[in-house]
């Protein structure tokens, strides 16, 4: 059956399975990805079906995990590395930005490193410190890395397939609080290019741009705004490096207003780059300044306070109202 209704976690699992069946050079590595099936069970069953040589439980050593994956990629493998939680990636940051990102340029294009680094990211699960970070801007800033994040099950399945097939290193951010959100997945029909944004709701008064976990919030905001007679367009960015500025520009030229939404702090976030580029490109179309909605420039708070920290429906609608008031 080509079309299935799957949660995002299961869609990623099915995508990994398909990739491993198709290409024996695809390997999975990470902490507890094997016998346990991952802390979110995203790799559940793969160890049993493919064995310990292809689904590899590693020590708690993120730098070593990524460094080993780089070596395997140099030998012709396609490693898929899991960083168990977003805040655990920083011990591997040196390997990612000084080796993984730069090897292709350093070798004048002769060496390719087809490594996928999976990172469950974002808040909303009531976790402890270091388990709810949104560090995507740190990686999007690094030349040589591609950075993507699905918002739904179909994209989770197909973007993982495309990431594994890519010869470029890709940081694959998985919105962990959406792991159990279900959606239809057509396993025989590719929805589009990996780095292409997609309009997921049409509108005429204002554009909301988001990616990963905040796409659902923006769709809820657009539905709420419609009850007040406001027509809101929602664009799912899907990729933070590269960014499909053409798609955002085309939407803003129609609606003449833009609000960018992400979980990560507004300060130096992806929204800042989008706001600057769209202001340059659409200066004579804009009827209001580009506004940004995101987290605060502060360490992620304890679980009891995270609902105050995370951008929700009210903060998005407030930005919509402020933009439309110009």
From TrEMBL:
Keywords: Oxidoreductase, Thiamine pyrophosphate
Database matches in CDD domains: TPP_PYR_E1-PDHc-beta_like
Gene3D superfamilies to which the protein is assigned, alphabetical: 3.40.50.920, 3.40.50.970
UniProt cofactor(s): thiamine diphosphate
Transketolase-like pyrimidine-binding domain boundaries: 6-181
Organism superkingdom: Bacteria
Bilayer-spanning residue ranges: none
InterPro entries according to UniProt: THDP-binding (IPR029061), Transketo_C/PFOR_II (IPR009014), Transketolase-like_Pyr-bd (IPR005475), Transketolase_C (IPR033248)
SUPFAM superfamilies: Thiamin diphosphate-binding fold (THDP-binding) (SSF52518), TK C-terminal domain-like (SSF52922)
Name this polypeptide is given: 2-oxoisovalerate dehydrogenase subunit beta
Provenance organism: Streptomyces xanthochromogenes
